[in-house]
Design goal:
There is one protein chain. This protein has nine helices and no strands. It has 162 residues and is mostly helical. It has a single domain, classed as Butyryl-CoA Dehydrogenase, subunit A, domain 3 (Up-down Bundle). Helix 1 packs parallel to helix 4.
Length: 162
């Protein structure tokens, strides 16, 4: 008899969408989601049981993993001479839900604009404006105050408009 999969497995698509929108690379997004799940399964069963909202926990960890990747990616690109462009999402949806998700994907121009932002601005904008998180939740994920997150998102919006 097999045990049913844990509810956190159902969060994978959401986490992948979040990570892709933050990182602009499907491969890096998949790595970030894998790292997020590795941290989840590294917890003891008692620690996992103590988490009241596994989805929120996973989103928080994924956001922080992406912030780490963005910080190291920015440092790597400082040594790269060419122009960085995010890779497009493959256009092969597995289901209607995937097709809808792909249709709602961020355009290449928006991804290029995101690249011009600081990692904190990018996370604040994507979590709040794209995924609809409240600034209090964004603050919890980024380790900043809600006011600082509002300012980060505001300056990110100014970059998008420019």
């Amino acid at each position: 008899m097999t045990t049913p999969p844990e509810p956190v497995v159902g969060e994978r698509r959401h986490l992948l969408n979040l990570a892709y929108r933050l990182l602009g690379s499907l491969a890096e997004a998949e790595d970030a989601v894998q790292e997020t799940y590795a941290r989840w399964y590294a917890l003891t069963p008692a620690q996992r049981a103590a988490i009241s909202s596994p989805g929120a926990w996973l989103t928080t960890v994924a956001g922080r993993v992406c912030l780490d990747v963005l910080g190291s990616a920015r440092a790597r690109r400082e040594q790269y001479v060419g122009e960085w462009l995010p890779e497009p999402v493959p256009e092969q949806p597995d289901s209607v839900a995937d097709r809808i998700t792909l249709d709602e994907s961020v355009t290449m121009a928006f991804l290029v604009t995101l690249e011009a932002m600081t990692p904190a601005q990018r996370v604040a904008l994507v979590l709040h404006d794209v995924f609809g998180y409240a600034f209090a939740e964004v603050a919890e994920i980024t380790g900043r105050t809600p006011a600082a997150c509002r300012e980060l998102a505001s300056s990110a919006r100014r970059r998008v408009r420019a």
